[in-house]
Amino acid sequence: MPRDYKSRANSPRRKPKRQVPGWVWFLSGLLVGLFFSGLAWLKLLPSEERLVVPPPQAKVSAPPVGKGRPEKKEPAAPRPRFDFYTILPEMEVVVPEPEPEAPPPRVKRGKIKKEGPVASGGRYMLQMGSFRRYSDADRLKASLALVGIRADIQKVRVSGSGTFHRVRSGPYTEAKVNQLRRKLKQNGIDSLVIKLKG
Which conformational region is residue 144 in: left (phi greater than 0), alpha (psi within -120 to 50 degrees), or beta? Predict the structure, then answer.
């Protein structure tokens, strides 16, 4: 195998550059940022009005010879810097007393029987609940559907009390109402029986 006789000069080894640690860069950047922030803050500060007080007069007046004691003048009361000390006591605000709340007006309702089987013939509605929020009424309607009872939500506006969402089912005959009430009671749902007129 041929040999390479060319002399190679020993290449000098490169000295590794000493790198500046990251924390030094961070600290120097932080200091430069704080310096410029301080300058901007000082520039944006409102200039304070400085009170220029004239130097005291060197003149001393000699007391009059004929009088025994010189009169002492009381210095004038300093003018208040703020006016609200004088303005606020002059302002009087009359707060009206709250009016007593009137009892809510009576709402005409159908005849409601709470417990026991329905005694006479006719048509009846079952009301399982009345809620201010529609979401609560819809939740009850869904739980009734799981039990197997179809219900409707009626939006009713009661004067003085606002809007209510009633969950009702029916109309039913006497026998069907008694059967549904037992089913509801077994599932822990209270109900009211409302007799329809006519």
Answer: alpha
Could you give the CA distance from residue 92 to residue 101 in angstroms, rounded to a whole number?
27
- Closest residue by Cα to residue 126 from 102, 152, 105, 94: 152
Quick check: helix, strand or coil at residue 152?
strand
For the chain, which domains are there? 122-195 (3.30.70.1070)
Q: To which residue do tokens 């961070």 refer?
A: 26
Q: Is the pTM of this model over 0.85?
A: no
- pLDDT tens sequence across 78-131: 666 776 666 666 655 555 666 666 666 665 555 555 555 555 567 888 888 888
Residues 59, 48: Cα–Cα separation, whole Å: 32
